[in-house]
Amino acid sequence: MQQADASATSRVGRGVQNGRVSSHDASHAGSCKGKLLVATPPLADPNFDRTVVYMLEHTGDGAVGVVLNRPSPGAAPEVATRWEDWLSPPATLFDGGPVETDALIALARLTGPAEGAWSQVLGDLGSVDLGHDPALVADRVDQLRIFRGYSGWGPYQLDNELNEGAWMVLPAEQGDVFHAEPGDLWRIVLRRQGGRLAWVANAPDDLSSN
User: Fold this and answer.
1) d(CA 158, CA 105)
2) Can you tell me the distance from the alpha carbon of 123 to that of 60, in angstroms, rounded to the nearest whole number?
3) Are 41 and 203 in contact (CB under 8 A)?
4) Is the separation of the CB atoms in 57 and 168 below 8 Å?
């Protein structure tokens, strides 16, 4: 698997600025937007081994998502530390992917409107502009997670990987983006599918030992 560089993913039609992503309405047959990409084991690319990626966009120009199960403890940029009191547990930044690792994407569910500070991604899930004063919208933040970097694919690159069987495309549940136990999310998502996929969830990390 090859990850697209930032210049390629910029053609998806999304901007990432101060944690906020801008939407693109272009339709794409078989779009994975709003779904989960679950890595099929074994995946040689360590960036994505046993990852769960929430897809923010998928068009003919490319695709963008964030890895949901890679917490990244450590120092956070100042713009993110101002929001740390409202982060959903575990209250840390997450590695969203290997593209533009200096960029931040903040996903949130709010209990009320926050004009200018929140923009819809899908349904009640949206992105927050981290440049805003947290005090102005904090009372409406129900769930919040900040990702450092993102996962991106160039035109039809993800489609090719799906055809090769590198990913399983599965429905997302409301709690997945803000799951309190992200380290177990890969197995949790597979187990709830039942059948063969539930069996895959129990595969050992080292398949050669099975």
Assistant:
1) 21
2) 22
3) yes
4) no
Confidence band, pLDDT 50/70/90 cuts, at residue 21: low
Domains belonging to the chain, first-starting first, are 1-21+52-181 (3.40.1740.10)
Render pLDDT for 93-121 as a digit per residue (tens, 0 to 9).
999 999 999 999 999 998 887 788 888 89
Q: What's the pTM value of the predicted model, to 2 decimals?
A: 0.86
Under 8 Å between Cβ of 134 and 83: yes
Measured between its terminal Cα atoms, the distance across the chain in Å is 24
pLDDT classification of 29: cutoffs 50, 70, 90: low
Alpha helix (H) residue ranges in the chain: 6-9, 78-81, 134-137, 157-163, 185-191, 195-201
Q: Which letter, b or e, does each residue of 117-150 get, where b requires 16 or more Cβ atoms within 10 Å of its Cβ? A: bbeebeeebbbbbbebebeebeebbebbbbbbbb
The label of the residue with tokens 């009640």 reads 124
The C-alpha atoms of residue 14 and residue 22 are separated, in whole angstroms, by 5
